[in-house]
Amino acid sequence: MSLPSDCLHCSNTLSPDTEDDSFRDLIEHLSPPEKMAGLCWMAVVLAFSLSVGNTGAMDQNKVQKLAKYILNNCFLGEGQVSLAVNFPANLDQNSLHKISEECALIKDKIGQQDGLYKGTIMVAAKHKTIQSKSRQPYTEHAEERVLDNMQHLAANSAGKSLIFYSFLSPCTKCTTQGGRHNILDKIKDKIDKKGWNDIAFVFSKVYTRTKNYKGDVPLFEDTIKTTLENLGTTIFDDNIFHCYSPKRSPFKCIKCLSNASPRHVDENCLTNEDDLYSSVGRVGAHI
Questions:
Q1: C-alpha distances out from residue 38 to 6, 15, 28, 88, Å
Q2: Do 46 and 60 fall within a single domain?
Q3: 116 strand-pairing partners
């Protein structure tokens, strides 16, 4: 943030469109020196507001285009995987070629590199079981591993669009505030106030089943709804999408959360279309 060294020039930084009516009314009755000081203060506030992170919502058509490109080029099969991809503002053939090259590297190397790939414009990970002498073995989920390795993407985020993709929608472990492995805090740390132009969280399958001491059990829709609402408290806000190819229909992306209060969660983000055709519906079980 920079301001003119001579505060007498501050008034030139403000156009009539940037002045608030109530502020104008207030300074109208001040002496000339006081009025100039008020204009200078307004310039400080305006400059500060413009310097704060500008990460915004991504247009739904753009989300669908980028998500489809990721799934067509980087799809690693039916299993939990997460990716974060920096898309440049200018999506020309050269930039798309670079992305497709990294997708090919992911498919070739992710199985050889402990289920983790760190490239120049994307990070990808599968879950990993951690053996520990001090506690029971536990699982680092794919989303958590991607967030822990996004330093290069964040450092080169200026002017880019970020798609954070997960094959499965987040589980309760990932979206319970204060939990040891929740991704909400990591999103705040790794993505908040960085330089991306716009961002979106995309998933292909709704996480509808989990594993506990009883085995593979279904989740209630209210539980799934809560996970999405909790994810919506991060900078992703209402930019959360279920992108998939319905039976006998073209690929589409459903916006999961409304931006109204109280928030509405789209029912298409609470179940998988496969489940509507099958009584088994054994999709979306985290380890």
A1: 14, 14, 10, 40
A2: no
A3: 125
Q: Do 222 and 267 share a domain, yes or no?
A: yes
- Mean residue pLDDT across the chain: 78
* DSSP tag of 14: -
Domain count, the chain: 2
Task: Name the one residue in this structure whose structure tokens are 């006998």.
Answer: 248
Cross-strand partners of 216: 211
For residue range 214-237, what is the model confidence (pLDDT) as tens digits?
Answer: 777 889 999 999 999 999 999 999
Q: Evaluate whether residue 283 is within a structural domain.
A: no
Residue 276 has pLDDT above 60, yes or no: no
Q: Is residue 285 a part of any domain in this protein?
A: no
Radius of gyration of the chain from Cα atoms? 23
Shared domain for 60 and 41, answered yes or no, is: no
Domain-embedded: residue 287: no
79 and 215 in a single domain? The answer is yes
Q: How far is CA 85 from each of CA 72, 80, 176, 220, 229, rounded to the nearest angstrom? A: 14, 17, 25, 31, 23
Domain residue limits at 14: 7-51
| Cα 143 to Cα 30, 47, 169, distances in angstroms | 55, 35, 10
Output the CA–CA distances (angstroms, integers) from residue 132 to 129, 138, 139, 177, in the order listed: 10, 8, 11, 24
**Mean pLDDT lowest for which of 31-45, 149-163, 250-264, 270-284?**
31-45
What residue type is 174 in one-letter code?
C
